[in-house]
Design goal:
Number of domains: 2
Strand order of the largest sheet: 1-2
Number of helices: 4
Oligomer: single chain
Radius of gyration: 29 Å
C-alpha cells in the first residue's frame, strides 16, 4: 500500500468536506477561511486538485473527452444548419437559402410560372 497515495486521498477527503461546508454556508472564501484559520491559498489548491480528480473520474465513466489540468472540458461546437425555404410553382419545387442570389431566384420563379 502506497502511504503517499493514502495520505493524499485522506487529505482530499478532508478538503472535499471543507469545500462542501463553505459552499453550503454561502460565505465568501476569504471570510470562511479566516473564520476557520485556513489558508486561502490552500483552499484553492485543494479545490483545483479535487476538480481535476472529479474531471478525471468523469472522463473514465462517460468516455473520451478533453480535460485540461484546471478541470475545464472542451466542447465541440454545434453543427451549423442553414435555414432553407422551399418554393413550389406549378408542381416544381425550388429550395433556397440565405446565400441564394435573389435575382436568380426571381428568374427561376418567373420561368416556372410560364411552364
Amino acid at each position: 500500500m502506497d502511504t503517499q497515495k493514502v495520505t493524499t486521498e485522506y487529505r482530499m477527503s478532508q478538503w472535499a468536506q471543507i469545500i462542501k461546508e463553505r459552499q453550503s454556508t454561502g460565505q465568501k472564501v476569504d471570510d470562511f477561511c479566516e473564520e476557520r484559520g485556513l489558508s486561502r491559498h490552500s483552499y484553492f489548491y485543494w479545490l483545483r486538485k479535487i476538480r481535476k480528480a472529479a474531471c478525471t473520474e468523469l472522463a473514465k465513466i462517460s468516455g473520451p473527452s478533453t480535460c485540461s489540468a484546471e478541470g475545464w472540458i472542451q466542447l465541440s461546437s454545434p453543427e451549423q444548419r442553414k435555414e432553407t425555404i422551399s418554393i413550389e410553382v406549378n408542381g416544381c419545387s425550388v429550395n433556397a437559402d440565405m446565400d441564394t442570389d435573389p435575382e436568380l431566384l426571381k428568374k427561376v420563379c418567373h420561368i416556372l410560372r410560364t411552364l
